[in-house]
Amino acid sequence: MANLNRRQFLQSLGLASAATAALAFPGIIRAATTRPHVVVIGGGFAGATAAKYLRYWSGAVDVTLVEPNTTYYSPILSNLVLNNQRNLSQISFNYNTLASKYGIKVVNDWVDGINAPNQTINLRGGSTLAYDRLIIAPGIQFMDVPGLDSSKVPHAWQAGAQTTLLQQQLAAMPAGGTFVMSIPAAPYRCPPGPYERACVVADWLRTNKPGSNVIVLDANPAITVEATTFGNAFATYGVEYIPNAVLQGVDSDQKIAHTSFGDYKADVLNVIPPHSAGSIVLQSGLANVGARWAGVNPLSYESTAVPNIHIIGDSQGTGQPKAGHIANAEAKVCADAVLRLLSGGQPFAAPVTNSACYSPISSTTASWLTAVYAYEQASGTMKLVPESFGASDVPTTKNYSRMFDWTTNLFNDTFA
């Protein structure tokens, strides 16, 4: 049992060897008479990792990844596109290696519906896929904000064209202008991300648009993570930080944010709307946590609403953060559990996940944050391990360099 625990822990971190992984699933590898089929919806950090590790750990299961886009743009590092330190091509990934190296069938299409009783999904192109187990990783969708037109007021919280639009607006902003961004109430994708963006933009503006102002409208009562680091950076940059500022509406033409504290006019307005689970989760009756997130059993990420369907990543409602690194970890726990279930076994009883990230604070410095979550049998939930929590005291150039090592490892573990 001690060896099994260690093997499972290594797998959760993506460190298990192929040989060790194969030994973990003797039932499905040696005894399967028909090949089970797992369908994965969504090709971000959660979905791509799940698809990869299902095949990496077992050659006896067929895996189909359904993702409408041929290219995935990483939200991680996307704020560095805004200050021209990265371009989109440097944070873009395709699914060619997943298909050629791991034998995953990649289908570029939208999912229009799930027929849970028949265990099939309907694709917009007209075809139907049957599954033995279904893993859903659709990320987030945005909730409505009155008057918001994201083609004029970008969120740039899903990287790609939105990132380019915000970059272009910042480049065209006059010196002495005002950049206003809004942060939704938690939970939202990437807890430090909005504060990171405010720092990166403020740092860039003071060099390239002298005399400009940055205003952060935060629906939360305080900075949600790394409060000292971001608070000190805001003070250094002269960022006006306004907590409890609930966004009530937007004038997208005039670039005005209507909030509980009044109106704020901007030259560049960046509104990050409140989030919910991806639309397929809501449409399929899987959003049973506050009608926004999917309730799951964290041992397997199987839905508490519908059997044989697993939800991972930003759409899950376990209370774990919504971010790329921990989505990668959840995907491995889920893949491991699915293979065990398909072989007639039970999920590992003590899964562990890790949430970690580096945040650029300037063009040369970054901070870091890490935390481990472990399954608590008494409550049936994933709990933060208090002694695991850590954060940098101050942003440093060494952290900035290590940030790229971290992202390279995460990108490779997901897509390579």
From TrEMBL:
UniProt keywords, alphabetically: FAD, Flavoprotein, Signal
Signal peptide from the UniProt entry: 1-24
Domain FAD/NAD(P)-binding intervals: 37-148
Residues annotated as domain Sulfide dehydrogenase [flavocytochrome c] flavoprotein chain central: 163-273
Domain Flavocytochrome c sulphide dehydrogenase flavin-binding: 350-415
Protein name, per record: FAD-dependent oxidoreductase
Organism of derivation: Thiothrix litoralis
